[in-house]
UniProtKB/TrEMBL annotation:
Organism annotation: Kiritimatiella glycovorans
Protein name in the entry: Dihydrolipoamide acetyltransferase component of pyruvate dehydrogenase complex
Function description: The pyruvate dehydrogenase complex catalyzes the overall conversion of pyruvate to acetyl-CoA and CO(2). It contains multiple copies of three enzymatic components: pyruvate dehydrogenase (E1), dihydrolipoamide acetyltransferase (E2) and lipoamide dehydrogenase (E3).
GO terms for MF: dihydrolipoyllysine-residue acetyltransferase activity; lipoic acid binding
Positions of the Peripheral subunit-binding (PSBD) domain: 148-185
Amino acid sequence: MSTKMMLPELGENVENGDIVQVMVSPGDTIAKDQPVLEIEAGKASMEVPSTVEGEIEEVHIKEGQTVSVGDVVLSVKSETGAETEAESELESESESESELEAEAELEAESGSGEASAEEEQEPEPPPKREAPEGPAKQEKRAAGKAVAASPKVRRLARELGVDIHEVPASKPDERISEEDVKNFARSLLEDRERGGGPSPARPSLHHAMPLPDFSRWGEVRRERMSQTRKATMEHLTSAWFAIPHVTQHDRAEITRLEELREKFQPNVEKEGGKLTLTAILIKMLAGALKVFPRLNCSIDPANEEIIYKDYVHIGVAVDTDRGLLVPVLRDADRKNIKQIAVETGELARKAREGKMSREDLEGGTFTLTNIGGIGGSFFTPIINAPEVAILGVGRATLEPCMGRDENLCRPRLRLPLSLSYDHRIIDGADGARFLKWVVDALEEPMLLSLEG
């Protein structure tokens, strides 16, 4: 019999992706868990294993196509006669859609006779339902683990305009059902009718200002956004609207540090790495974050709490052909500069080759973005939420500087630094102290051994 393989869930809050490579063709025989396609979802690339086994009859997708969770990707001729989970879910999905259509028709019919019915009798009070969890519990649940819901339930939530992460399951530790979504949607409508609707949603890119017809003034062309660009657009827009940014600037005199970097470069090259300023900065930041843990935290506004992290994972912005990626170097405070240099080089290579996994991009506590290799000085980096700070680094330049102990003007190498932070949790004085510590550590590397 023929079996339909659907695109499985790709991760928390990931609903679709772009096909990078189709690894099979009609006539091929595949085994269960064999990789059959590569997909780019968000900023990560991943291989999708087969959920069925048998001979491929038809491939329903092609490279470059955007597919959603639950879409049919393969038709496979299976020797087993039992109905597969994929087919069962497809059938139940269509049944669910039919039920929704029937329910909508029924509501429309009952609505037309509502006025005359009201004249004859008072409406019965609606059956009591348990109130949905409060925002604090919902956010806490969402932060603790991924939402357990099937693709058809997620689709229903989207159709009803409900955030699946806010829907409480009727029974603890169970998957969210269609009934849970419907009950939650009804409770939101009732709250709105009573005048106590939910707080305004965050700005959506799908409701942006209307665009003029640019072709009125000349030739235009449209290019489809990649998954990486869409993810960047959504994430940075959300962060910019949600976080009150403050950016402070300073310069560090790194003439001596640069001499040391060149001196010890061969030691790192022996280990297969490259001693870059980025690697040194990561170590400096790891030391600073231990001294100033407030910049290594996150905010839980719903519960009015600050979440302090006893680990230091530094995200490093990498410029790639696909767009900006931020792989995470873990436990930077427990590694020496040589280890950091080797691992950072490996992460950058994976990012540029499109081999980043979701795990590589998650869990950062602070981000470093260095545009010095391209050019530029000061800028305003946007915080990588839910982190609360990010350090931007420009190009170091030789500048005439007065010596501290002599009245002589000498050329010194100075590095521009831009620290953006969340003003809800970090005061200006805290930001200034943190940035000064980083500057002092760059100018006097021995400080890292003393205090970092």
